[in-house]
Design brief:
The chain has 6 helices and no strands. The chain has one domain. It starts with 6 loop residues before the first helix and ends with a helix. It is mainly alpha-helical. It is globular and about 30 Å long. The longest helix is centred in the last third of the chain and has 15 residues. The relative contact order is 0.19.
Length: 91
């Protein structure tokens, strides 16, 4: 699995950024989740969550194993993606 973020899970469950924002705020996850860019960056994997509860909440929200969510935000995932891109260029 080399996917960063959970955008594909959000789309497959037909959630919007507003729905994710409301869930984060409703469950008391620390952060400014009423700001669209914060939710956008979280969903697209541009930021790594600071609070571990976000991983648990997303796991429950998208009905996937927490390991799947953790791997999507892991720094190892970025290294795998970079290596794959370099290997594609090195014939």
């Amino acid at each position: 699995m080399n996917q960063k973020g959970v955008r594909d899970l959000m789309d497959s469950n037909r959630y919007t950024y507003k729905h994710i924002s409301e869930e984060l705020e409703k469950n008391g996850v620390p952060g400014n989740w009423d700001i669209y860019m914060n939710v956008y960056n979280l969903i697209n994997g541009r930021i790594t969550p600071k609070d571990c509860y976000i991983y648990i909440l997303m796991s429950e929200l998208f009905h996937v194993d927490i390991k799947t969510i953790l791997m999507r935000y892991s720094s190892a995932t970025s290294k795998v993606n970079e290596t794959a891109q370099v290997n594609e260029l090195d014939w």
